[in-house]
Amino acid sequence: MLRRSSPWPRLVAAGLTAVIPLAAVPSARASTGSGAYTPGSAGLGDPYFPLAGNGGYDVAHYAVRLRFTPETRRLSATTTITARATKNLSRFDLDFSGPAISEVEVNGRRASYVRKGQELVVTPRRGLPSGKKFTVMVTYAGRPKPIKDRALGVAGWIDTEDGAVALAEPDGARSWFPANDHPRDKATFTFEVTAPEGLTVLANGEPDNSGVAGPRDGYRTSKWTMRHPMAPYLAMVAIGKFTVSRGTVGGKPNITAYDPSLAKEFKRLHSTTAKAIRWESKVFGDYPFSSTGGIADRLDVDYALETQGRPVYDTGMSDELVIVHELAHQWFGDSVGLRSWKDIWLNEGFASYAEWLYQEQHGGPSAERTFAEHYRHRAGSDFWKLKTGDPGRDGMFDWNAIYVRGAMTVHALRKEIGDKTFFTLLRTWARQNRHSTVTTKDLLALAERLSGRDLDDLFDAWLYRAAKPKP
Ligand code: ARG
Ligand code: ZN
């Protein structure tokens, strides 16, 4: 049960202090949100993750402050969210599966709250008027646990031998900070992480230690800022012993780091990152963020993740093509984000196709040849079993359906519209949807506009059939 009665609806229109029957409030006041104050929804209606994200507000900024104690692996944290109500809210939800909460404040005043599964339901003292900004501060402490899923693996706060790393696709952000945890709601971020002086802290964006107090009692605070909008699942913090390299690529900082025990495997991380960013900026257009880089650590998650501006690589993920893939996601997945998880092929298909293109342009097999090899899979075989454009929640990272057939879909589109239009499409798609979110329909519309062709049948055959498309 959700607790306590919510506060009386507050009528915010100037001077209205008495409670007036809602029907009597003229709708002309809609600009400041007249009408009943009702709860925000517990999800955004994503069919794969019904509880991911929340309705009724829009986050503008997350300020995540953490203190990490390696001996106990405990976190003591305060996350402050700046958001805007999109309706009159009597209460609202955050997604949070992290450690014990000691306090929740809304607009600087204590708010009541209840935890219900992954939902943190917050009831402020006063309703939050539509269109108005508000802040939520959540204070919590304890040992965070990652989100483990049978089909999708492990994501969120991951303990390492000498620290911790947070990386969170698709819904692990809630393991370490309260969030509107859906890719549709991007926000800027600051991370202020306090850790023992002997450890290095990295995060998304750029270091910015202005206004941060100096070391105390053997602990030091490091601040990082991501000043471009970012989906919560792309938020990243890495704490531990790291060998750090700093340089620039295309005039922007390139900051890479690896666990010293991975020096041999990742010795090329820095130079390969620079090389990939240079090539991708030529093919996809201007790099969308203000710095780049990468972080390699022993995570035991068996994947790499395109955490915004600075991907994370598990041991075993050091291949040049993996780096090309994660950095291609900076354009496709991070800057151009998803409105719905079922369109995950838009992320993985384009990032995988970047690998095919990279090989084609660096003395490897042509994309056509790579395509042809996969196309040999017999009709009726498991390779064609899922729908690339709607693989189901558990199939969202299916290698064949999403990564390979996603890239094949991109290649089929290229063949249909020709190279010139195709490369214009890649750049236009990235430019027009920079720092935004998209659907497959948006891609279809743009491809049809640029090519002047009807592409419904091609999209249907490659994305919405569990069958081998005709040649
Ligand atoms: N997006 C990652 C990539 O670039 C894969 C993430 C896999 N995540 C997971 N929970 N299995 O390939
Ligand atoms: Zn990927």
UniProtKB/TrEMBL annotation:
Q: CDD domains of this UniProt entry? A: M1_APN_like
Do the record's keywords include Aminoacyl-tRNA synthetase? no
Database matches in SUPFAM superfamilies: Leukotriene A4 hydrolase N-terminal domain (SSF63737), Metalloproteases ('zincins'), catalytic domain (SSF55486)
Under the heading Pfam families, the entry gives:
Peptidase_M1, Peptidase_M1_N
List cofactor names only.
Zn(2+)
Q: State the top-level EC class.
A: hydrolase
Alphabetical keyword list: Aminopeptidase, Hydrolase, Metal-binding, Metalloprotease, Protease, Signal, Zinc
Where does the secretion signal sit in this chain? Answer: 1-30
Q: Molecular function terms in GO for this entry?
A: aminopeptidase activity
Which reaction(s) does its UniProt entry say it catalyses?
Answer: Release of an N-terminal amino acid, Xaa-|-Yaa- from a peptide, amide or arylamide. Xaa is preferably Ala, but may be most amino acids including Pro (slow action). When a terminal hydrophobic residue is followed by a prolyl residue, the two may be released as an intact Xaa-Pro dipeptide
Keyword tRNA-binding present in the record's keywords: the answer is: no
Enzyme Commission no? 3.4.11.2
Q: Where is the Aminopeptidase N-like N-terminal domain?
A: 61-234
InterPro entries (UniProt xref): Aminopeptidase_N-like_N, Aminopeptidase_N-like_N_sf, Peptidase_M1, Peptidase_M1_aminopeptidases, Peptidase_M1_dom, Peptidase_M4/M1_CTD_sf
Q: Domain Peptidase M1 membrane alanine aminopeptidase, which positions?
A: 320-462
UniProt record similarity statement: Belongs to the peptidase M1 family.
The record's section on PANTHER family has: AMINOPEPTIDASE N, PROTEASE M1 ZINC METALLOPROTEASE
Q: Which protein is depicted? A: Aminopeptidase N
| Natural source organism | Microbispora maris
Q: Name the lineage.
A: Bacteria, Bacillati, Actinomycetota, Actinomycetes, Streptosporangiales
